[in-house]
Amino acid sequence: MADLIFVLLYNTKTGRKLMAVVEKYIELCSKHKWLGIISYIGLSIAFIPVVGWFFHFLERLVEMMFVLAILLIGGFISLVSSFFKK
Question: pTM of this prediction?
Answer without folding.
Answer: 0.47
